[in-house]
Amino acid sequence: MKKADWTGVFPAITTPFLPDGAVDEAFLVTHVRWLLDAGCTGVVALGSLGEGATLTFEEKVRILEVCRTVTTGRVPLVASISGLSTAECVALAKEAARVGCDGLMVLPPYVYQGDWRETEAHFSAVISATDLSCMLYNNPIAYGTDLSPEQIRELADRHANVHAVKESSGDVRRITAVRALMHSRLALFAGLDDMIVEALAVGADGWVAGLVNALPAESVALVDLAKAGRIEEALKLYTWFLPLLRFDTVPKFVQLIKLVQAEVKMGSETVRAPRMALSERERKEALAVVREQFRHRVDA
Prior knowledge:
The protein is an alpha/beta fold. The protein has a single domain, classed as Aldolase class I (TIM Barrel), CATH 3.20.20.70. Helix content is about 45%, strand content about 10%. The chain is built from 12 helices and 8 strands. The protein has helices spanning about 25-35, 55-70, 85-100, 115-130, 140-145, 150-160, 175-180, 195-200, 215-225, 230-245, 255-265, 280-295; strands spanning about 10, 45, 75-80, 105, 135-140, 160-165, 185-190, 205-210. It has an 8-stranded parallel sheet. The two termini are about 30 Å apart.
């Protein structure tokens, strides 16, 4: 995987569960194939939306193996690498390479918010564990660790296999700040669903997206229109899409996105503890938003 391969729409896929809590491997295949058939250009597995923190090490490896059966020869498969310890993350990175993943999305450690010396050492250990292409994931909202543009440049200067950044600070100015420092050396991705058109307008290359799990055709069309400069059409679709895209930016984003998947009959609402199903009130309110948008659906 090269820098040029980091472009377009990369779903951060949800992890489907059976009623007994086991991973639904059969549906995982169906879902990933459906996303690729809709035009998605890569797949990111094991992320926050994939409930990666609740998966065992063995489950993570098996999910990558299952995804690989669908993505091989079609699009890059990217493993999200996160955990409590650096050793655990290094081990998962090596397993991702063994399975045949094409890239890694590297996160800061869970829970412990170290200083830059510690954070840099963690990132460097994971990036150096394989020769796979790496995306740095900056999400200070969720993880409390903020990679500054200067720190991103430091990691990219130190490691030749750093090719991309997922920017989820919510500040679109970070796209221009990283671009000013790195020029075209790194591919830049919007990491929040409700910032994609703004990010593309200032130089982003792609989107690691959430609602794409339920609405891939609309997601791909939105990026294609914005990249082609067809702004009026893009904004029409974006305006319709935004109430749903904002589901990605709240604490119960997993439950909400799975709810939309269930509504389009491409997944279930089942989540793994400590997450719980939406309360009756939460579900009713969310479904009202979903069904109202679907009544006025814009053609992709």
